[in-house]
Amino acid sequence: MKGVILAGGLGTRMYPLTKVTNKHLLPVYDQPMIFYPIQILVEAGVDEILLVTGGNSAGDFLRLLGNGKEFGLRSLNYAYQEGEGGIAAALSLAECFVDGSRVVVMLGDNLFENSLRPAVVEFLKQDYGARVLLKDVPDPERFGVAVFDEAEKLIRIDEKPRVPASNYAVTGVYMYDPAVFEFVKTMKPSKRGEMEITDVNNFYISNGAMEYSYVEGWWTDAGTFDSLQRAGNMVALTHSIHQRRQ
To answer: Are 131 and 122 in contact (CB under 8 A)?
Structure first.
């Protein structure tokens, strides 16, 4: 199974810290942020990862992560994204790496308490299509929000709605079949000037090819000062609980 971690962007919401380094290299408790998505993908059965990054700190990832062997990876590859084209544009750089197989895509600032392996196993059982992970959150308006019909079928995803149709946020993990790259080639930038991952997900939904899993345990992004602090607190608490049980 192949994985792609998206760790580009300018991190402007975290200035001045990100004036001197990439957001994904900032510490979350006792590790650099980028360690967490690598570890969660490896635990889920991914043994080849492409890390997509950009900006002036791109070389720091190579110095920090090397070839990925210390994480148990068969290979760790790198791609450089020029500019700010959005998540879908960053994903398009992975087409040659994925090479016609299925892929798990993860945003580099997302942290999960529990394993993603059950969701990956369910995705691999699908004949085709995509799968997203949903989490019940108190502030869904910050995220892409799942909209369901009366039978709890996912009918669309609303990006940062003022009035959310549900409390279920789409987390930063997306699982796709190879058709994703053909669709991305047809996309046009949104009003924000970016190629939105929500448009990719709604493409799969409109074609009846999207499934979903619920996230057990805590989940957070770490893309703002508040969420970075929250992520560190959650990791520290989880470590403390594990130590008490040992």
So the answer is: yes
The residue ranges of every structural domain in the chain are: 2-245
Q: In sequence order, what are the beta bridge partners of 211?
A: 131
CA 82 – CA 104 distance, rounded (Å):
22
CA dihedral (184, 209, 41, 192) positive or negative? positive
Q: Three-state SS across the chain? A: CEEEEECCCCCHHHCCHHHCCCHHHCEECCEECCHHHHHHHHHCCCCEEEEEECCCCHHHHHHHHCCCHHHCCCEEEEEECCCCCCHHHHHHCCHHHHCCCCEEEEECCEEECCCCHHHHHHHHHCCCCEEEEEEECCCHHHCEEEEECCCCCEEEEEECCCCCCCCEEEEEEEEECCHHHHHHCCCCCCCCCCCCHHHHHHHHHHCCCEEEEECCCCEEECCCHHHHHHHHHHHHHHHHHHHHHC
Cα–Cα distance, 141 to 161 (Å, whole number): 5
Mean confidence (pLDDT) of the chain: 92
Locus of tokens 């510490």 = 27
What's the longest Cα–Cα distance across the chain?
52
Token pair listed for 160 = 């940062």
Cis peptide before 138 (omega within 30 of 0): no
Determine the topology of domain 2-245 in CATH: Spore Coat Polysaccharide Biosynthesis Protein SpsA; Chain A (3.90.550)
pTM across the whole model:
0.93
Q: Which of 22-31, 82-91, 141-150, 233-242 has the lowest mean pLDDT?
A: 82-91
Q: Are 55 and 6 in contact (CB under 8 A)?
A: no
